[in-house]
Amino acid sequence: MSLSLVAGCGALSSEGSDGEQVITVGTMSAPSTLDPAKAWDSSWELYRNVFQTLLSLPSGATEPEPDAAESCAFDGASNTVYVCELREGLKFSDGHELDAAAVKHSFDRMRTLEAKGVVKGGPMGLLGSLDKVETKGERTVVFRLRKPDATFPLVLSTPAMSIVDPREYPADKLRTGNGLTGSGPYALKAYEPREKAELVKNDHYKGAADVKNDGVTIRYFKKSSAMVDALEKQEIDVTFRGLDAGDVIDAQSKSGDGADEQKIALVEGAGTEIRYLVFNTRDPWAGKLPVRRAFAQLVDRPAIAHKVYKDTVDPLYSMVPRGLTGHATGFFDDYGDPSVTKARKILADAGIDGPVPLTLWYTTDRYGSATALEFAELKRQLEASGLFEITLKSRPWNEFQEGYSKGEYPVFGRGWFPDFPDADNFIAPFVGAKNVLNTPYASKEITEEILPRERRETDRGAVVDDFERAQQILVDDVRLLPLWQGKQYIVASEEIAGGERALDPSAIMMMWELQRKTSW
């Protein structure tokens, strides 16, 4: 879809100072840290472009392919030994050799930092099945798993498993400062925290990416409106992640082909980002199953998608989003359309009389300004029934995280960008004594039967029944209440090509896919 916006008076140079073709990207995904051993968040956006992993997910793919590795495979049918052979001649951007010892160092380092308490809640959480890492010669890495795990190749493809230079990243402490050393398509030339990152082509890179530009400057924004304004003024070439629904709709409405107008292109893609609510069962009200079921019976997802997000998101009725093998619609199947009559009966049958008081918490700065409107709509829906009295409270992200980790919130909102495109990643992280929510959720059938069974099967289509059963358990418990599934949007100058290929299945921009049409 081609759109047009009135061009600003400033002209955006299509070239760097040395005549090279450089792309400027605007995003709201500023890194929280430059050390991949610490981050399990939007920092991955930068990591994907400057670090390398053994495997990666190519554009449009859901199966990982070799990147730093020349080949990887399970050794035997048990799915407990995974062997990778590195490409020859790999080097980090500083010229240091990248060998099997560097790979082992990267994984052992994550474990050490977590064990020593230097890192809490870091990406080591993805490596629950890993026992140890061994090397054979300079190019062979052997991963020995405690138990079968068919998702392990997908884990290796995440930016959390970035390979770092042992000379630059100490085994027992985090790297400090604003420097970064990787072996990915780009090298980090300069970095200003929360402001911008300048990436230049890494001449030492050997991997799967076909780099179509000479460098990328990433500018970090705090507001969608400011990012769109920068695009209109031609200060940036591309916007990604963080676009408010209103800005997307506004862009869709601005079309024209006037000679003095700067045309832009809107790229829309399927997404697997989800939003959901978490119920704290230690709360005297949220801990009651009938209260949670009555709550679920009243939530009007289509109204949230339409009123708040202008249909730039879709209603979601299970924790596993559409597009992934194993997706189900359990909450719609069991609850149907919102019904005050059904909700009232659920409470009455449990002997609960009178409005139920609940406090709903959300973060003010993690998911965009629409979050406040979303929770206001939830409050309206629930209180319109006469069955709930809702109090809304909010905190900035860092404080918000601390609060739910301490069990302070009866009900709170969270979002999830998948680590990898598999139904396992929308179930496993949320259950068990230790989960990403720090809200213990005991479900022995899921953790002791379903997850171990499905992880023994490399044919993911063969475990649909397991995933559907797991989702039904989540529906029955109503500990997690899915609300909506997002889409992916890129708005770019019309002279920029490759936007449709720049998004990987985990909604991370592969910036090497971007190029200027004028440079063809």
UniProtKB/TrEMBL annotation:
Keyword presence, Signal: yes
InterPro entries, A to Z: Peptide/Ni-bd, SBP_5, SBP_5_dom
Superkingdom of the source species: Bacteria
Solute-binding protein family domain span: 63-435
Location within or outside the cell: Cell envelope
Keyword list, A-Z: Signal, Transport
Family designation: Belongs to the bacterial solute-binding protein 5 family.
Identification of the protein by name: Peptide-binding protein
